[in-house]
Amino acid sequence: MIARYQRDIFKNIWSDQNKFDTYLKVELASSKAFHELGLIPKEDLEKLMKASFKLSDVERLEQETKHDIVAFTRAVSLSLGEEKKWFHYGLTSTDVVDTAYGVLFKEANEIIEQGLLTFMETLKSLALKYKNTPIMGRTHGMHADITSFGLKFALYYDEMNRNLERFKLARKQIEIGKISGAVGNFANIPPEIQHFVCKDLGIYEANISTQTLQRDRHAFYLQVLALIASTIEKIGVEVRHLSRTEVLEVQEGFSKTQKGSSAMPHKRNPIASENMAGIARVVRGYSLTAMENIALWHERDISHSSAERIIMPDATSLIDYMLTRYNKVLNELQVNDEKMLKNINLNHKVIYAQRVLHLLINKGLSREAAYDKVQSLSFYALSIESDFDIVLKQDKEIMRLVNLEEIDNCFTLDYYFKQVNTIYQNVGIYS
């Protein structure tokens, strides 16, 4: 992952130093387990618990052995005496690697989950702040019906809450270890070792495995990350649309020294929202790679390994970056409620047509007749650039059915907010 899109905390989690430190934790937990079973003498265990390594030794030995775990075990053995015979006892490489991944995922996931909760609080705050702010609702990109600007954030809050539920489930499936030996049959290592190690490390343990944990777990996890990324992109797409010059209902924050274009000094672009779209594409691509990693040959091959060295650090780092950066964008979002009102009336009030339609139906017209009449008059109002309520009041056929007060009642904003409280309660947002 390039530094631009990775916070230092995730750089540290996925660093080689932390990776091998975690390998050592797995190895030593296994040694403690074997001691509990009576195999490793207490004095040897005490010496093993002081084991250490130099990253430079691991890197040097890997050049010789062409095997990172062999290089790691030999680098650790340099710090040990005769007790080194017990180090990595009964284990296969993936016992260490996959179990260490479970620990590393837990480190990353605790940060990501907190990021999700913080992001959701921001969405909730915006939903409440703009609960009674009218905005033009759009379908197919066209003016449709008036709605609450706050409802947009309530919708995102509800969606992100589903993402949170999925993420918690994915955590249980990915923060997991296996210590089952070369083909997963526990022939050379008792099942009690796996139980002890995973409990000691604070992660779950697999019911069954081959030499590897099954990669459906990782695929599901990446799919959940892709869903989180896609929700953030979804919010960003809305911000981008509402930021367009012709709309200008919201804008991303813009610092005093910030520049929008190298050529056009007047530009102020929604760059963070566009950034979210690009990163979301990457995360979704990683989820496809994770799906491809499910089908391994027999009890294992390493076709998944090279891909996971890239996609796992990258995907988790990117989700953390997206949650952190876009939470800041939303907190600094500039909302132009006056322009929202202006845009509502941009089309000469024809957006109240549905209410007029219902009024005419209530007065006895068939739906077909009422629809055709309202459509004709709304198109006419647009063609002559006259407000729709004025055109209605000038139509003799309409005025034979309704009075002026009934027409005026079709052009009020409060009508569109009568069920907003109910919707907020449905998604768990309370004033």
UniProtKB/TrEMBL annotation:
CDD domains: Adenylsuccinate_lyase_1. It comes from the Bacteria. Its EC number is 4.3.2.2. Residues 348-428 form the Adenylosuccinate lyase C-terminal domain. GO terms for biological process: 'de novo' AMP biosynthetic process; 'de novo' IMP biosynthetic process. It catalyses: N(6)-(1,2-dicarboxyethyl)-AMP = fumarate + AMP; (2S)-2-[5-amino-1-(5-phospho-beta-D-ribosyl)imidazole-4-carboxamido]succinate = 5-amino-1-(5-phospho-beta-D-ribosyl)imidazole-4-carboxamide + fumarate. Coiled coil: none annotated. InterPro entries: AdenyloSucc_lyase_C (IPR019468), Fumarase/histidase_N (IPR024083), Fumarate_lyase_CS (IPR020557), Fumarate_lyase_fam (IPR000362), Fumarate_lyase_N (IPR022761), L-Aspartase-like (IPR008948), Pur_lyase (IPR004769). Belongs to the lyase 1 family. Adenylosuccinate lyase subfamily. This is Adenylosuccinate lyase. It comes from Acholeplasma hippikon. The gene is purB.
